[in-house]
Design a protein that fits this description.
Strand order of the largest sheet: 1-2-3-4-5-7-6
Helix content: 25-40%
CATH class: Alpha Beta
Strand content: 35-45%
CATH superfamily: Gcn5-related N-acetyltransferase (GNAT)
Radius of gyration: 15 Å
Largest sheet: 7 strands, mixed
Number of helices: 5
CATH architecture: 3-Layer(aba) Sandwich
Shape: globular
Structural class: alpha+beta
Distance between the termini: 40 Å
CATH topology: Aminopeptidase
């Protein structure tokens, strides 16, 4: 088993489309298009996770300001969930954003497994808008 975590490129759109269609099927109710996948590469920093030769997940994030980052998506192929891939991608992004004091993400309240993952990584609920939770992770102040 060889794990590779790397920035996504336009050559990865089919893998992102496939993973996004499966991971967000409940929310989107439709298959993702190639244009949906291109959007993740164009509009955010997107990283792909491979196990051996297969793409198993992606995570996208961006900067809202010099002190605030926002994770827009964490997606794992449904057949590959519950194997630690989401945790691995989230930990890598947290490390990549180590200099940023605040990281936000949104998650549906009913997504209890995802919420537990985020809470285990220091995220806490700061807002609830009709079942969509905004969670925040604050960097501890240096002493």
């Amino acid at each position: 088993m060889t794990i590779i975590y790397r920035p996504a490129s336009f050559e990865d759109v089919e893998a992102i489309r496939r993973i996004g269609s499966g991971a967000f099927k409940e929310e989107s109710q439709t298959e993702w298009t190639i244009e949906d996948a291109y959007r993740f590469i164009r509009e955010a920093r997107t990283r792909l996770l491979f196990d051996s030769e297969s793409a198993v997940g992606f995570i996208s994030f961006g900067m809202r300001s010099p002190v605030l980052a926002y994770i827009t998506s964490v997606a794992v192929d449904p057949q590959q969930q519950r194997k630690g891939y989401g945790k691995l991608m989230l930990d890598n992004v947290i490390d990549e954003l180590a200099a940023i004091p605040t990281i936000w993400l949104d998650v549906w309240e009913r997504k209890t497994i995802a919420r537990r993952l985020y809470e285990s990584r220091g995220f806490a609920e700061i807002e609830n808008y009709k079942g969509l939770l905004r969670m925040s992770r604050q960097k501890s102040p240096s002493r």
